[in-house]
TrEMBL record:
Protein name (record): Haloacid dehalogenase
Sorted UniProt keywords: Hydrolase
Family matches, as InterPro entries: 2-HAD (IPR006328), HAD-like_sf (IPR036412), HAD-SF_hydro_IA (IPR006439), HAD_sf (IPR023214), PGP-like_dom2 (IPR023198), S-2-haloacid_dehalogenase (IPR051540)
Keyword RNA-binding on entry: no
NCBIfam families assigned to the protein according to its UniProt record, in alphabetical order: HAD-SF-IA-v2 (TIGR01493), HAD_type_II (TIGR01428)
Coiled coil: none
UniProt keyword Transport, yes or no: no
Family the UniProt entry places it in: Belongs to the HAD-like hydrolase superfamily. S-2-haloalkanoic acid dehalogenase family.
UniProt superkingdom: Bacteria
């Protein structure tokens, strides 16, 4: 919970991470282990996807998120000592990123925040076309003023410049923006860039204990929205 003794003016813009924060990845959590015949495959794959997006960033290389996702499937096969998937199967699995439903609590939480007068912007490591497809499929695209992709800067969150680029595009100062995410690394990155943050404690997600705690945290989006609205 935030410290109520500290006055903070309400943010103007709320940036929302997408995968896991807004969208339920249950389809992929079932499909990836099934494809490999290994119950550990999803965690291995998604961890590699995030890890090597950061490797691209720190080495000054850039590959689209979907390409890293496919490469991470090959790495998952090697690390789990399973057979590599066919190119068709890999594309089908990565394509599921665009076919994920919203978490049940998300529409209500977004409506609460929209009714309270906040500008809502989706902000993701996925390419712009993927982001648009995700929000349309999940039936939540109408809540957002716009969507932003790191494709513009060819660096992945939580790099400092990804948040700075978002601020510049939106024409706002860091103190006017709050990032909502279900990932401790995204929360840490946003706060390092001078933004406030809200952490949604989705199952299996946790904060980075060595980073500054988020401004707000809750079990779902409505509980977080109530804190933000005040």
């Amino acid at each position: 919970m935030p410290d109520s003794s500290i006055y903070r003016p309400l943010p103007k813009v709320l940036l929302f991470d997408v995968n896991e924060t807004l969208l339920d990845m249950g389809k992929l959590k079932r499909a990836v282990p099934k494809a490999f015949g290994n119950k550990h495959a999803f965690k291995q794959w998604f961890g590699l996807l995030l890890y090597y997006s950061l490797v691209d960033t720190v080495t000054g290389t850039y590959h689209p998120f979907g390409h890293i996702a496919e490469a991470a499937l090959d790495m998952t096969a090697d690390m789990l000592e399973e057979k590599r998937l066919s190119p068709t199967t890999k594309k089908e699995l990565v394509g599921l990123l665009s076919q994920l439903p919203a978490h049940p609590d998300v529409p209500r939480g977004l409506q609460m925040l929209l009714d309270a007068g906040f500008r809502l912007v989706a902000f993701t490591n996925s390419p712009q076309l993927t982001l648009d497809a995700q929000l349309r499929y999940a039936g939540i695209i109408h809540f957002f003023e716009r969507g932003l992709s790191v494709d513009e800067v060819q660096l992945y969150k939580p790099h400092f410049h990804t948040y700075q680029a978002a601020l510049q595009t939106l024409g706002v100062a860091p103190t006017e923006v709050l990032l909502v995410a279900a990932h401790g690394w995204d929360v840490a990155g946003a706060q390092d860039a001078g933004l406030r943050s809200g952490f949604i404690a989705r199952p299996g997600q946790t904060l980075y204990p060595l980073a500054t705690p988020p401004t707000y945290q809750g079990k779902d989006l409505p509980s977080l929205a109530r804190q933000i609205i005040g």
